[in-house]
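Internal ticket - ligand job 240, cytidine-5'-monophosphate:
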Amino acid sequence: MRGKLIVALDFPNMTEVRRFLDAFESEKEPLFLKVGMELYFQEGPAVIAYLKERGHSIFLDLKLHDIPNTVKSAMKGLARLDVDLVNVHASGGKAMMEAAIEGLDIGTKLGRKRPGCIAVTQLTSTSEIVMQEELWISRNLNDTVLHYATLAKASGLDGVVCSALEATSIHERLGEEFITVTPGIRLTSDQLNDQTRVVTPEDAKKLGSSSIVVGRSITTSENPMETYRLMKNAWEGVKI
Ligand code: C5P
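stdout (C-alpha cells):
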C-alpha cells in the first residue's frame, strides 16, 4: 500500500465508470481505484467484481462508524469481496476498530491476505475552526489527528486516512510501517472544491505520505488519462 496513486471513482453508476476506464485502456499497469459511498450504494458488490475482473486493486472507502458488533459483521462481509483496503472512522473508538479487524480476519478467505484497514482521523474537508466550533473538539487539528492515529495503531489498524500535512508527524510518532493515505490532493491550477487541507502530489511525497488519493482533479479533467500521468509522474518524482 506504499507509493500508490489511488484514483477515487466518485461516479454515480457503472455506465460512467466504464466510460471513464475506457479512456485508460492504453495504460498497461492495472490501476488502484477507490470505490466510495456514491458508487457502492448504487451498484453494490457487482462493481467490485467488475473492477477485480479487470485486475485493478481496490480501496473500498465506506468509512464505517457504528457499534462494534455491527462493524465486525459488516467487515466480515466486506472481507469476502477480497478488496485490498477498507476503512472506518477512528472516532468510533478502540473497541469498534478492534472489532473491525476481528470481522476482517473472520471474513478473509483461506489463503488470502486480510484487506488492509485504515482509520479516518479527520476528513480533509474539515478545517480546525469547524472541528472546534461544530464538533466541539477543543484541541488543535494536528494533535487531534495524531491522537486518533495513535488510537488506530493501538487498535491494530494498518494506518490512517489523513491530510498529507499531517503525514510527517504521524510517521515520526508511529513509524514508517504505519501507512498514511492522503486525499485532498490538487494541482496548483486546480479548484479546491469542498476540500480545505490540500497539497500537491510533489509536496505529499516530500511530507512522507505513503499513498495519495486523487478524485476530481482526474475525474473531471478534460483529459483524465493525461492528468493521471501528470500527477503520477509528479508523485513518483519523474522528471519530464
Ligand atoms: O475529488 P477529491 O480529490 O477531493 O476526492 C477525494 C476523495 O477522498 C473523495 O472520494 C473523498 O470521499 C475521499 N476522502 C477525503 N477525505 C478523507 C477521506 C476520504 O476526501 N479524510
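Auto-summary: The longest helix spans residues 94-107. The two ends are 25 Å apart (CA to CA).
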